[in-house]
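Example 3.2
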Amino acid sequence: MESRRRRNDAAYFLIILTYVLAVVSHPSLISLIFLPVMILHAFTIDLILPKVLSRKIGAKDIAILAVNTIPYIYFFTLLILIPALAFLLSIILSYTKSKILPQLIGTVGISLLYLPLVQIFGGINIVDIGVYLVWTTYTLTEAIYVEYKLPYRKVSIKQLRASWLTSLLINVISIIIFPLFVLPLIEPTIRFMKPGEKLKAASQIKELGRKGLKRTILVFSLLLAIILIHLLIF
């Protein structure tokens, strides 16, 4: 009997949060039209990412990926090439010996959708750039943090810290844009710089996921608050 495939809840979760950030930044009729597009993206990543990681992607999967690009032919922006290249790179790297890089790049590819969506929904303002930098660097390092915590992954604490220190340097731009961007960086900085030991057993992974969910919602909520404050002020 064939085992039931486990749904990638993290992909749905990250796409929903990225979409909500973009909608709140620029609410419009187009943003509502894009809701089914986001659902399609989530379904596609859920279906195809496991095949990408196991190097079993086929012609049908390529066709599904192609369907995902159709809305962007009409609502074209050069910015959409950034997440598109990330997903393409994830597929290419899946054919190397690396098991971690395709996962990491595929994950950050989702959060990279934020700025193209904002552009499509109504245009980019300077705070959107700050949100983009914080959100993408956080989601990337959060994914590295998870890989570090897994007992069977060879991700070192130095690699995790280097990733977040680089992210902090990038996010100096965000803080200059709007000083409140320092707030969503506080908790991740404490956690990523002092991540503790790796998990002792696979049974702890579910708890790691629950804690990660809450912490990601915290960062998301602070970014949402910054967007709303900026809209009220300006």
